[in-house]
C-alpha cells in the first residue's frame, strides 16, 4: 500500500495537532505497509523463522552433551527458555539496519510530506517487530518440544514467559532504531549491534549456568537483563526457582529502557525528517 493513500500530503502540521484516533489510523496503515513489505520480501523473515531452529540444533547437539555429561534432554530444558531471551535481541538488531536503509533509500522522505505523527512511523515498526518476535518464539518452542523440551507448569505460565520475552524485546527495539538513525550505514549499525549483543548474550545465563564463571563475570551476569529474563522464563516453564524477583527485574528493565530511549528515538526521527 502506498503511503500516499493514507492521507493527502500536507506540510507543517505538528504531532500535537493529530488526535489519538487519527494517530491510531496512521499506525494501522503503516503496520499494514510494513507487513506487506515482508510479504514481498520473504527473506526479511529469515532471522525470525530460521535462526531459532539453527540455534536450538547447534547449541543442543554441539555443546549440550558436554555441558550436561551427555544428557542433552536436560540441556534442552535449560537452554530453550534461555533462548527465548536471546531471540528478541537478535530481531531488534535487524530493525536498526532496516531503519538506516530506509533513510538512505529516501523512504523516510516520503513520510516527511504526510500529516502524520512522527512517532507513528516508529510505533508501527515496533508493532511489526513484536509480531516477528512472537512468531520466532513460537517456532522456537515448537522446535524445543520436538527436541524434548518439557513444560512442567501450565499454559498460562508459558504464555507469561512468552509475553515477558516479547515485552523486553520491544524495549530493545527502541535502542536499535535509535542506532539506525544515528549511524551512517547499515553496516555500521550491524557492527555496533554485534558489539552490544555479544557481551550481553554470552555474559549471561542463557547458554550455561554462571556458577563456574569467574567472579568478575558473575557480577556482570547478575546485572545483565538477559540473565534475569532467562531465569524468569526458566522459572515460569519449569516451576523451580524464584519467579517474582526475576520477573520484576525484567519488567523494570523493560520500562526503564522504553521510558529513556523511546523519546530519544522519536526526537531523532523528528529531527531527521524535518
UniProtKB/TrEMBL annotation:
<dbReference type="Pfam" id="PF01061">
    <property type="entry name" value="ABC2_membrane"/>
</dbReference>
<keyword id="KW-0472">Membrane</keyword>
<comment type="similarity">
    <text>Belongs to the ABC-2 integral membrane protein family.</text>
</comment>
<feature type="transmembrane region" description="Helical">
    <location>
        <begin position="191"/>
        <end position="211"/>
    </location>
</feature>
<feature type="transmembrane region" description="Helical">
    <location>
        <begin position="75"/>
        <end position="99"/>
    </location>
</feature>
<keyword id="KW-1003">Cell membrane</keyword>
<dbReference type="InterPro" id="IPR047817">
    <property type="entry name" value="ABC2_TM_bact-type"/>
</dbReference>
<dbReference type="InterPro" id="IPR051784">
    <property type="entry name" value="Nod_factor_ABC_transporter"/>
</dbReference>
<feature type="domain" description="ABC transmembrane type-2">
    <location>
        <begin position="43"/>
        <end position="272"/>
    </location>
</feature>
<feature type="transmembrane region" description="Helical">
    <location>
        <begin position="120"/>
        <end position="146"/>
    </location>
</feature>
<protein>
    <recommendedName>
        <fullName>Transport permease protein</fullName>
    </recommendedName>
</protein>
<feature type="transmembrane region" description="Helical">
    <location>
        <begin position="158"/>
        <end position="179"/>
    </location>
</feature>
<dbReference type="GO" id="GO:0046677">
    <property type="term" value="P:response to antibiotic"/>
</dbReference>
<feature type="transmembrane region" description="Helical">
    <location>
        <begin position="247"/>
        <end position="266"/>
    </location>
</feature>
<feature type="transmembrane region" description="Helical">
    <location>
        <begin position="43"/>
        <end position="63"/>
    </location>
</feature>
<dbReference type="GO" id="GO:0043190">
    <property type="term" value="C:ATP-binding cassette (ABC) transporter complex"/>
</dbReference>
<keyword id="KW-0813">Transport</keyword>
<keyword id="KW-0812">Transmembrane</keyword>
<dbReference type="GO" id="GO:0140359">
    <property type="term" value="F:ABC-type transporter activity"/>
</dbReference>
<dbReference type="InterPro" id="IPR000412">
    <property type="entry name" value="ABC_2_transport"/>
</dbReference>
<dbReference type="InterPro" id="IPR013525">
    <property type="entry name" value="ABC2_TM"/>
</dbReference>
<keyword id="KW-1133">Transmembrane helix</keyword>
<keyword id="KW-0046">Antibiotic resistance</keyword>
